[in-house]
Amino acid sequence: MAWKQALRRAIVRQFGHPRGAAGSIVGWVMAHRASNRQRNVWVVSQINVQSTDRVLEIGFGPGVAIAELSRRIGPSGHVYGIDHSKVMLDQASRRNDAAIRAGRVSLIQASVNDLPTAFDGPFDAIVAVNSLGFWTAPCTRLEELRRRLKPGGRIAIASQPRSAGATRSTSLTAGREITDLLEGAGFGQARTEMLDLDPPVVCVLAVNAPPDAAHVS
């Protein structure tokens, strides 16, 4: 029915850019749904964070992955995050208040389309979980992110398709599309990992290396 389709579109828009009271509810769901928490912690585990790393998350949502990243770094490391939603900035800031006050986490409201100069890097790793699908000109955005990575720096782009009827095949297709975007932006050594949820989460990892570097799928 038309009203159901309209409602679904409205919900999807909230997940892409939470606003107001409805956005606060969406953020609560993202933070407390067990599969969402599992997905974020798993993605962070894939990039092998070191205690001295400087890590940037694009689209941190309610701050679950930020909390996991800050747990893994040491006093000389730092976690940075941007999200274009003020609602998500507020929720993530509350969730990570102690780490922010300790000077280990910096969060700001900003868009990947207009990366702040304060977050120029260079970074050791960059993470984006279920946010790439909302970017405009994603290859251009990835090229800009690669310029902010150290040589050999890692990137992890994860997606759990939320379209109606999504399956393992849907996730595999998403993984191939992410790989193509990363390679088109100059990343190398791309490899794909999957987390067996319903539907599966796909995480494509790559490094800031020459495009002809070894490719592992």
SSE topology sketch:
Layout: H1 2-16, H2 20-32, H3 34-46, E1 54-58, H4 64-72, E2 78-83, H5 86-95, H6 97-101, E3 105-109, E4 123-129, H7 138-147, E5 149-159, H8 168-184, E6 188-195, E7 201-207
Parallel strand pairs: 1-2, 1-4, 2-3, 4-5
Antiparallel strand pairs: 5-7, 6-7
Helix pairs in contact: 3-4
Notes on the protein architecture:
With 217 residues, the chain is α/β, with parallel strands linked by helices. It has eight helices and seven strands; from the N terminus they run H-H-H-E-H-E-H-H-E-E-H-E-H-E-E. The protein has a seven-stranded mixed sheet with strand order 3-2-1-4-5-7-6, sandwiched between helices. Strand 4, helix 7 and strand 5 form a beta-alpha-beta unit. The longest helix is centred in the last third of the chain and has 17 residues. 43% of the residues are buried.
Distance between the termini: 41 Å
For the sheet with most strands, the description reads: 7 strands, mixed
Strand content: 15-25%
**Overall residue-averaged pLDDT value:** 87
Name the strands of the widest sheet in spatial order: 3-2-1-4-5-7-6
CATH superfamily: Vaccinia Virus protein VP39
Radius of gyration: 17 Å
Helix content: 40-55%
State the total count of DSSP E strands.
7
Please give the domain count.
Answer: 1
Return the CATH topology: Rossmann fold
Give the class from helix and strand content and strand pairing. Answer: alpha/beta
CATH class: Alpha Beta
Backbone shape: globular
